[in-house]
Design a protein that fits this description.
This protein is of the alpha+beta class and 255 residues long. The protein has helices spanning 17-21, 27-81, 89-92; strands at residues 105-107, 111-117, 137-144, 150-154, 160-163, 166-175, 178-180, 193-201, 213-216, 219-222, 229-237.
Length: 255
């Protein structure tokens, strides 16, 4: 019978080299692993916050740009239709509580009024999208709300929100001699053009670290909050009267 290497003595356990090489993770190794994991996690969180802030910024900028273009486009279309009719102007546009005889625009620092008539084909629409038949007049009223935003009303109807991001505007009217504010217009029937300057603000605050600085209504302004601000300017010649020159900073009058 061959000899065997197995030792059957009580309490004796043969040593296993593989078992001797196994050991757990030390406390120092565990702490280093946790520290590295925290560094990676903080980097991911910081990247996520930066991406989220950039997304908010780009979204607000896109909304502001859309708002400025939309309001500018609506006001421009309405002013280009001002005074449209198929009759003589003095007979078609009589004096009303808000318009002088023959005037096709009127306004104040916070309100712009425009009137015109519909066409035979019904292609002309008012500021709310309603079509005007021939002989049907439209008296559009644009107003700036105290809390920001522009409303549009037709005739005696209730104002309807047109936009919510316009924080302020500056209106000037061209008459013989240059551009004037509403208080400086002596004869509204002689107005030949309207200059519109819109101040558009973002809905969200805290988008920028430092307060925005912008030029509005001829003055340099520093915002009191951390919203974004953009200024949109346009000058519209009234097509149904003589066309004035475009407004310039030299021509603007503060009267």
């Amino acid at each position: 019978m061959g000899s065997s290497n197995i030792d059957y003595r009580p309490g004796f356990e043969r040593s296993n080299p593989r078992r001797r090489r196994q050991r757990g993770v030390s406390l120092i190794e565990l702490m280093v692993s946790l520290a590295l994991s925290m560094i990676v996690l903080l980097g991911v969180i910081d990247l996520f916050i930066a991406y989220q802030q950039q997304y908010r910024l780009q979204t607000q900028l896109a909304q502001m740009q859309e708002s400025g273009r939309f309001v500018t486009d609506v006001l421009t279309r309405e002013l280009r239709k001002a005074g449209y009719s198929s009759w003589k102007r003095d007979q078609t546009f009589p004096a009303t509580p808000y318009f002088e005889q023959g005037a096709i625009v009127a306004g104040s620092d916070s309100t712009l009024r425009v009137r015109y008539y519909g066409s035979d084909d019904g292609a002309i629409q008012n500021c709310l999208g309603g079509r005007l038949e021939s002989g049907e007049d439209s008296r559009a009223r644009f107003s700036l709300r105290e809390d920001g935003g522009v409303d549009c009303a037709v005739g005696n109807s209730s104002p309807q929100p047109l936009d919510a991001l316009v924080a302020d505007w500056a209106l000037r009217y061209f008459v013989e001699g240059g551009w004037h504010r509403a208080t400086g217009v002596g004869d509204w029937a002689s107005v030949k053009g309207v200059s519109i300057e819109l101040l558009v603000a973002s809905q969200q605050d805290g988008l920028v670290d430092a307060a925005s600085t912008y030029v509005f209504d001829g003055e340099t302004v520093t915002a009191t909050d951390h919203r974004l601000y953009r200024v949109y300017t346009t000058s519209v010649a009234l097509r149904n009267v003589l066309s004035p020159p475009l407004v310039t900073s030299q021509d603007e009058a503060s009267s």
